[in-house]
Amino acid sequence: MAATATLKSKNAERISRNLGVVVIDVALTGTYSTGGESIDLDQYFRKFTSTTVDDLLFVSFDADDATASGKYRYKYDYANEKILIYTGLGGDTELFAGESLTALSNIRMLCVGYHSQGR
Predict the structure, then answer these.
(1) What residues contact residue 105 under an 8 Å CB cut-off, 6+ apart?
(2) How many C-alpha atoms does 71 have within 13 Å on its Cβ side?
(3) What is the pTM of this model?
């Protein structure tokens, strides 16, 4: 199941004429997919004209998910537009395909990139 992005900040903050910062809350449902959870950020950031990759420069995660085995760690896969989720001691083991995502909540992404048209 894909991740759902919800704009947290009412308006994106502009750093320069076209560059901006967006804070996004992420909702995960269902089970984890091999290679990460797809997330659509097209409404917040424009695309390169020659590729399908967002003109996204930086993503940072702020999450408050604790489990008995430690905390989850999140990483954004820029090339495939997916959120990768790791766990275990040191946060270096990717979740297994089919693992439930119901325990994950309060995930927030800070994204820096070039605004989409009209943003």
Answers:
(1) 64, 65
(2) 9
(3) 0.76
Residue partners of 24: CB distance under 8 A and separation at least 6: 5, 6, 7, 8, 41, 44, 108, 109, 111
Residue 103, by phi and psi: left (phi above 0), alpha (psi -120 to 50) or beta? alpha
pLDDT in tens, 9-57: 655 566 777 777 888 888 888 899 989 999 888 777 766 554 544 577 7
Amino acid residing at 115: H
CA distances from 31 to 3, 99, 101, 118 (A): 11, 5, 5, 34
* Coil, helix or strand at residue 46: coil
Question: Are residues 91 and 84 in contact, defined by beta-carbon separation less than 8 angstroms?
Answer: no
Residues 6+ apart with CB under 8 A from 37: 1, 2, 3, 28, 82, 83, 85, 101
Copy the structure tokens of residue 107. Answer: 């995930």
Residue type, 65: D
Judge whether residue 102 has pLDDT over 60: yes
